[in-house]
Amino acid sequence: SGNLHPHHCSAQIPLPSLKGKTSLLRPMGRKNRNPAPNPTPPRAAAAGGIAAVRADCDKALAYLQRGNPSKALRLLRDAVARHGEGSPLLLRAQGTVHSRAAAPLNDPAARARHHRAALQAARRAVELAPDSLELAHFHALLLYEAASGNRDYEDVIAECERGLRIEVPSDPAPHCLRLPAPGPDQLRDDLRNLIQKANLASISTWVKALGGTDDKLGFFRLADEPLELQPLPAAHRPIGIKKATKTPEERRKEIEVQVAAMRLVEQHQLPHNPAVAASSPPLSEEDEAPCSS
């Protein structure tokens, strides 16, 4: 007759065990109602977010230019509430405003608070974008501004050297407050210049600790030429003006300071990293943060 008995079917097609397989109980054709979020946002959305952050930064910097850093900081706090704390550009703007707010203050405590806030923002930005030469230079500049001792200048040099070890830097434009952003070669030159400035500041601090003065460092070229270890030729004195006579003890102390300072410079000019040992460009009179306002 062609009809199969029910027990024949059950014997030939064994049912799978459902133990530990609760997923088999879900209705077929229906997906998870709460899928995991996509860790990589669409490019258009990311670009829109960067544009919104940049607009908020520009607005805050406009108030900073008008001499109202308090208003600029309030705008940036509001921007953080909207965009979150994961934007290196927003942190860069916060560091810039705090740094500029500290500059005119006479109260050491208030100035120190702004410096700490600026450094905290810069460190967070570097953590979010460790391959950014732009942020490495900015962080090093803030360290230099807040430095007051040899240990602080060592931190400046260490951050500059970290930046110079970045072989494949990220695009600086997303982290730069003013466009067009400087290129990698320019940023590396800026880092080398800052190393030289930190070296000289460290030597100056060390000389003052020995009871000397900055005029004992006059044998260094500080203007338009690279740092040199050779003394400058003595300046010609007008006829009729006699040189002040120094005691042997004064001459001995001055020579000791010069020799020790030269040795310190030699140590800093021969870092362990070959990338840092590259030839350094001339020192500039001012080393402003690229793209900051």
UniProtKB/TrEMBL annotation:
It comes from the Eukaryota. Signal peptide: none annotated. InterPro entries: DUF627_N, TPR-like_helical_dom_sf. Residues 284-293 have a biased composition (Acidic residues). Residues 59-167 form the DUF627 domain. Residues 1-45, 267-293 are annotated as: Disordered. This is DUF627 domain-containing protein. It comes from Aegilops tauschii subsp. strangulata.
